[in-house]
Amino acid sequence: MNKKNDITKKNVSHHHIFKTFYLKVFKVADKKTEEAQLLCDIKSALREWKNAENIFQFVTSPDLIDHAIYRIEAAKLRYIHLIKLAKKMNMKGIL
């Protein structure tokens, strides 16, 4: 009976070690994936902002000018928001 308890304790111990290792590995992987996605979103937001500014240069209709200004401001705010998120996550090399 004592031998059976020893085996059960070892299994629980191995299970705990494996679970701890698994969670640490995937937590790091999830953080790297999250950072990579955020970096991709930041690059996309910057391209969107630049595209909106380029569109503004070529529109002539007052309605389209208003729309272009709206797009510039929206893209700028999205970019700023994403930069703040990256800073909050202590990401390096984003600027």
Describe the structure.
The chain is mainly α. It has one domain. The chain is 88% helix and 0% strand. The chain contains two helices and no strands. The chain has helices spanning 2-58, 62-88. Helix 1 (2-58) runs antiparallel to helix 2 (62-88). The longest helix is centred in the N-terminal third of the chain and has 57 residues, at 2-58.
Element-level helix/strand string: HH
Structural class: mainly alpha
Largest sheet: none
Helix content: over 70%
Uncertain regions spanning at least 5 consecutive residues: none
Overall mean pLDDT stands at 81
**Alpha-carbon Rg, integer:** 25 Å
Oligomer: single chain
Q: Give the DSSP E fraction (strand runs of 2 or more residues).
A: under 5%
Global geometry:
rod-shaped
- Could you give the distance between the termini? 64 Å
Count of alpha and pi helical runs: 2
Total discrete domains = 1
Q: What's the total number of strands?
A: 0
What are the defining features of this structure?
2 helices; 95 residues; 0% strand; mainly alpha
How do the strands and helices of this protein lay out in sequence?
Elements: H1 2-58, H2 62-88
Helix pairs in contact: 1-2
Quick structural gist:
The chain has two helices and no strands. With 95 residues, it is an all-alpha fold. The protein has one domain.
